[in-house]
From TrEMBL:
Membrane-spanning parts: 53-76, 88-109, 156-175, 187-210
Alphabetical UniProt keywords: Membrane, Transmembrane, Transmembrane helix
Protein name, per record: Uncharacterized protein
Superkingdom of the source species: Bacteria
Keyword Transmembrane helix included in the entry's annotation: yes
Length: 226
């Protein structure tokens, strides 16, 4: 049975110098329920599908703007007065709908991503040195962003700033705009953008918390076995 966010993925595509098989696109898929680590190898077609899906999903942020523009073009705003969100949806609906839409978008993205990963063929686990190199590179380049400042090591600086800007800057700003009185077309656009931003929260949590903890655990296990 498929469960959302049950599996964490660590991509080795960033690694080029320390990976022995540098032309291969290896990824490690960790099952949180069983604690098993499965290795897979992406073909060029697998990589193209993953990139295309990521770009397409990010492009969804344009959709509510287009819907709002269409509503305005169809004349739904003609002769109407701006209203607060609770006038359109009720007090409970105005709060619950962006949260539910954000959750739905997050689950759809995770479901499609899981389906695409299921099509990637499994391969035997590489030797321990290669495993450690891939996981260490993913941690340093993707989670910690150690090279964000030239010549300085500032672990988690980039992701930390992104998370702070997201939680205390972008989301509160859009949430405040969402609660302003607007016409129907603008309300739909703001609702969609807010839901999209809220859908990113699970990925931020997975990246900064769960993945950081799991990858340290995996590296410790490799050291103990080595």
């Amino acid at each position: 049975m498929w469960l959302p966010y049950r599996k964490l993925v660590f991509y080795g595509a960033y690694l080029r110098q320390s990976q022995k098989e540098a032309d291969r696109r290896l990824l490690a898929e960790y099952d949180l329920a069983s604690g098993q680590l499965l290795w897979k190898e992406e073909s060029p077609a697998d990589l193209n599908r993953r990139v295309a899906w990521t770009l397409w999903s990010l492009g969804l942020v344009i959709l509510p703007l287009l819907v709002g523009r269409i509503l305005r073009w169809l004349g739904y705003d003609a002769g109407r007065q701006p209203h607060f969100p609770d006038r359109y949806l009720g007090s409970l609906g105005a709060v619950a709908l962006p949260l539910l839409l954000g959750l739905l978008l997050a689950l759809v993205y995770e479901g499609v991503s899981s389906h695409l990963r299921s099509q990637v063929k499994s391969v035997p686990a590489p030797d321990q040195a290669t495993q450690r190199a891939i996981l260490s590179d993913f941690r340093d380049q993707t989670l910690r962003f150690n090279g964000a400042l030239p010549g300085r090591q500032r672990p988690y600086l980039v992701n930390g700033l992104l998370l702070l800007g997201y939680l205390f800057g972008l989301v509160p700003l859009v949430w405040r705009l969402y609660w302003q009185p607007v016409l129907l077309s603008s309300f739909v656009a703001r609702l969609g953008i807010l839901a999209f931003l809220l859908s990113l929260l699970p990925n931020f949590i997975l990246t900064l918390l769960l993945k950081s903890w799991v990858i340290q655990r995996l590296l410790r296990d490799l050291d103990q076995r080595g």
